[in-house]
Amino acid sequence: MKSLPEIHAYWQEHNTCELKSTATQAVLGDGNPHADVVFIGEAPGKNEDLVGKPFIGAAGKFLSEMLESIKMKREDIYITNVVKYRPPNNRDPLPEEKETCRAWLNEELAAIKPKLIVFLGRHAMGNFFPDEKISAVHGKLLKKKIASLPTEYFLPLYHPAAALYNGGLREALLEDFQKIPLALKKITTS
Q: What domains appear along the chain, each with residue ranges and CATH number?
């Protein structure tokens, strides 16, 4: 099994994502390599592209506040994105861009072996649950065996950036976030 630094080094060199040519750099996953919880966003934004670290802008600040609300810190979790390179003008990543980064994400998850994967937004969730709607399943613990993944437990949440601009989503996200420790407890006792 390769370490996270080995995985990132390999895929930075061998990834064929078209976004690689327009981005400043790859935005690698960050956090605890032995985390019980992995958060997956959709793609890096402008700040992340410049610094090379996921969720460092306003959405990242809000994420850190929500982690504190459940007595966790960024150092306790691992956070990554479906796509490792910023799409131009922060547009949604295209299906082929997600596909070219899929093996990279799957190797990250295999190395970490989380108990729970938390999707931040519909794009992250749609990568694994294409037939679900975030409005219908946000805050619900989903269970599904996916051959390439080390866990079968998933918790879809609204994206922190969307919640910053929509008060109703903000309340739902804050409420759903409180379900993370409960989901972890349920997973470890089942």
A: 4-185 (3.40.470.10)
Beta strand extents in the chain (DSSP E only): 30-31, 37-41, 78-81, 116-120, 142-143, 153-157
In 3D space, the residue among 146, 143, 150, 153 whose CA is nearest the CA of residue 127 turns out to be: 146
Residues 85, 90, 177: CA angle, nearest 5 degrees: 85
CA distance 101 to 106: 9
pTM for the predicted model, two decimal places: 0.96
Say if residue 12 is exposed, middle or buried (CB neighbours under 10 Å; 0-12, 13-18, 19+): middle
Report pLDDT digits (tens) over 161-172: 998 888 889 999
Asked if 86 and 44 count as a contact pair (C-beta separation under 8 A), the reply is: yes
Token pair for 44: 């890096």
Report the residue count for the chain: 190
